[in-house]
Amino acid sequence: MTYVVTESCIKCKYTDCVAVCPTDAFREGPNFLAIDPDDCIDCTLCVAECPVDAIFADADVPKDQARFIALNVELAKTWKPIVEKKDPLPDADEWGKVKDKFDLLER
Fold first, then answer.
1. Structural domain for 27, as ranges
2. Which one of 1, 6, 19, 68 has the largest count of C-beta atoms within 10 Å of its C-beta?
3. Structural domain contains residue 93
């Protein structure tokens, strides 16, 4: 099992999760984070830290978010690791409540 970042992260990019990750498994894109499944050790620390509830165990990803399992794998191959907490995106609080924003994902 590995953990997966889902749609709620798009245009928010809170990095509280990054600060607690013991294996530096997070990867950073322009407006989204991904988890590298090869580095994730299933410790669950990141789940509680996400203020928009965007992180799930791969077996628990909601059905409407299933495409994010493969997306995390894909993006983790090309995005660079993020190992320190940064400020969220400027409108993160508003975007955290928005649904159906997959089309806004920047690669």
1. 3-82
2. 68
3. no
What CA–CA distances, in Å, run from 37 to 25, 27, 42, 97?
A: 7, 11, 9, 26
Q: Does residue 11 lie within any of the structural domains?
A: yes
Hey, CA dihedral for 24, 79, 90, 67, is it positive or negative?
A: negative
* Domain CATH for 18: 3.30.70.20
Q: Is 81 helix (H, G, I), strand (E, B) or coil?
A: strand
**DSSP classification of residue 11:** T
Total tally of structural domains belonging to the chain: 1
Tell me the pLDDT tens digit for each residue of 6-37: 999 999 999 999 999 999 999 999 999 999 99
d(CA 3, CA 20): 14
